Amino acid sequence: MLEPLNTRVESCYQQAEAFFKRPFKRPVVSLKLRGQKAGVAHLHENMLRFNPQLYRENSEDFLRQTVAHEVAHLVAHQLFGDTIAPHGEEWQLIMRGVYELPPNRCHTYEIQRRRVTRYIYRCPCPESDFPFSVQRHKLVRKGRRYLCRRCREILVFSGETRVE
Hints:
CATH architecture of the largest domain: 2-Layer Sandwich
Order of helices and strands: HEEEHHHEEHE
Radius of gyration: 23 Å
Distance between the termini: 32 Å
Low-confidence stretches: none
Subcellular location: Cytoplasm
GO molecular function: zinc ion binding
Strand content: 15-25%
Shape: elongated
GO cellular component, one term: cytoplasm
Protein name: Protein SprT
Cofactor: Zn(2+)
CATH superfamily of the largest domain: Metalloproteases ("zincins"), catalytic domain
Largest sheet: 3 strands, mixed
Number of helices: 5
Mean pLDDT: 96
Number of domains: 2
Structural class: alpha+beta
């Protein structure tokens, strides 16, 4: 799975080197990214992290667009330094001029959202449901208190949970 990714990263670097007529330091490439982001460029560590699930589900576009997008960040950083905007003129120049790709800021891949449990808290107000995250529910169990903004009473766990 990492082989086509590494091949594409190398290809992008070779294109940049031919275009700018100078060498670029190669990054560490990792498939350790989860969540909604398809890829992340760590400029100071010279590292690229990619989302393996989004790569599997969108491999053709991912290799073409996402890999070039992230490599362009590292190339722009090596060329222009820290002061440039992440998706600014310099990065866009590389996307258009070197890779001949649209400088899209975000991907449009479909994301499977994780199911989350909400803990329902209530106060004396009519129809008051306050869905708390697992983290907030744990804080309440450790002694933290939350108040209703309307009646200023302490929110109390109802015993109910909801999966979203």
